[in-house]
Design goal:
Elements (H helix, E strand, L loop, with lengths): L4 E3 L5 E3 L4 H5 L5 H18 L9 H14 L14 H14 L1 H12 L2 H6 L2 H12 L5 E4 L15 E5 L2 E12 L6 E10 L5 E9 L5 E6 L8 E12 L3 E2 L5 H35 L3 E2 L2 E2 L4 H29 L6 H26 L9 H9 L9 H18 L1
Parallel strand pairs: 3-6
Antiparallel strand pairs: 1-2, 4-5, 5-9, 6-7, 7-10, 8-9, 11-12
Helix pairs in contact: 2-4, 3-5, 4-5, 4-8, 5-8, 8-9, 8-10, 8-11, 9-10, 10-11, 10-12
């Protein structure tokens, strides 16, 4: 892999340089490469020593937000106008190489404020974006419900106008940062269109508003602050609506579309770490009188792993480049990147565990942690199955126009 090692403070070898593929990609500028190198140094110094901590997830998540804010990194996720998706992907890949929780702390600041940046009134936008970028406020994106996951049109949370306020009632489930967020971008049904479809609108809801509550913290297989929130006659000022009535569905889809390729980048970071761990282990572990790396079946696994990783990263940074340069097509590219990278990462990390043998099953080892962390990426922000529907739909649409 041609890596330069660094001894982290917790005694493990940690790569502080991205491998050579990054410097070969035609999609990145010298500024992007400098950013990647700087983030790698930051991660080795600040994130890796804390990466294995799972006892107090909410406290650790807050700590990561503060560290990212102090280093000026949150500004790449919280943007007043346009997000540079290539930078977003580079940062997520490097954070996820070390810690899925640090990656989550970073990206949720962007997911939770993107709609606010695009369409909230000026004073609302300026207040929350500044606080999110400085780490003074933690953000969340509240779309999913008990009966509305991939089917956004099935949203049951309602918001009805009452004078100068909207009254929100309903529940949201699997909301990342539930319980630690200070501000939530909430999507609710404000009316029904003539064709029977719901009119979905977006609102900025502060965690201290009367009628808002955290119902439960939901334990997941990997460390992740997530839970269920509820609204009971929660009054929100009308000026805290994001955009106009009915803009919510478009804003939600734009948010997911913008960040989708970066999910693939996080998957690549986890896969790259697992591959590095597998190479190190195979190069020192002996079986039947030879190093594992000298056995052809292990070599075949390593070959498959690096090939899939390279292919995944090419798709991710192609999609990011398309978004940043204003390419006419982006949705299909982003979905392809998310689909392939997350599925490939699952296979790569599974192979890394297999190469480690029994050691790979020991709780707390890097590959065991990555094995748990990577699984969620195939589900959130659009399952692999939904991505296939998006890709096919875009392909058929393009063929019709041709």
């Amino acid at each position: 892999m041609n890596l330069v090692g660094h001894k982290s403070t917790n005694g493990t070898n940690f790569d502080i340089n991205m491998d050579r593929l990054i410097s070969q990609l035609p999609f990145l500028t010298p500024e992007h490469l400098n950013l990647a190198a700087g983030i790698a140094q930051f991660v080795a110094r600040e994130i890796e020593p804390r990466a294995a901590t799972e006892e107090d997830v909410e406290s650790t998540a807050r700590q990561f937000v503060n560290l990212l804010a102090q280093a000026g990194i949150l500004k790449y996720a919280v943007a007043e106008s346009k997000i540079d998706v290539r930078s977003l992907c580079l940062i997520r890949e490097e954070l996820a190489y070390s810690s899925a929780l640090a990656d989550l702390a970073f990206v949720m600041q962007g997911l939770g404020t993107y709609a606010i940046a695009q369409a909230a009134p000026d004073h609302v936008r300026e207040f929350w974006l500044s606080r999110a970028a400085n780490g003074k406020a933690i953000a969340a994106f509240a779309l999913t419900e008990p009966e509305a996951g991939s089917d956004v049109a099935a949203i049951q949370t309602t918001a009805r106008r009452d004078g100068e306020t909207y009254i929100i009632d309903g529940r949201k489930r699997f909301i990342s940062n539930a319980g630690i967020a200070d501000v939530y971008t909430v999507f609710a049904k404000t009316a029904t269109r003539e064709d029977g479809r719901p009119m979905i609108s977006a609102f900025v809801v502060g965690s201290r508003m009367q009628g808002f509550s955290v119902v439960e913290r939901t334990p997941l297989m990997g460390p992740h602050p997530i839970g269920e929130i509820a609204f009971h006659e929660c009054r929100v000022p009308a000026e805290d609506m994001v955009g106009n009535e009915g803009d919510g569905f478009r804003l939600a889809m734009e948010t997911l579309d913008t960040f989708r390729a970066s999910v693939g980048a996080a998957a690549c970071g986890m896969a790259r770490r697992a591959l590095d761990e597998a190479v190190r282990y195979a190069s020192r572990r002996k079986q039947f009188g030879r190093l594992l790396a000298e056995h052809q079946l292990v070599q075949a696994k390593l070959a498959d792993m690096i090939t899939e990783l390279d292919a995944a990263r090419l798709l991710v940074y192609r999609a990011a480049y398309a978004r940043d340069t204003g390419a006419g097509r982006f949705t299909r590219e982003a979905s392809e990147a998310k689909l392939f990278a997350t599925e490939a990462a699952g296979r790569i990390i599974d192979s890394a565990v297999q190469i480690h043998g029994g050691t790979g099953l020991v709780s707390g080892t890097v590959v065991e942690r990555m094995y748990r962390d990577v699984r969620a990426l195939r589900i959130y922000e659009g399952t692999s199955e939904i991505q296939k529907l998006v890709i096919a739909g875009q392909l058929l649409k393009e063929q019709t126009k041709a």
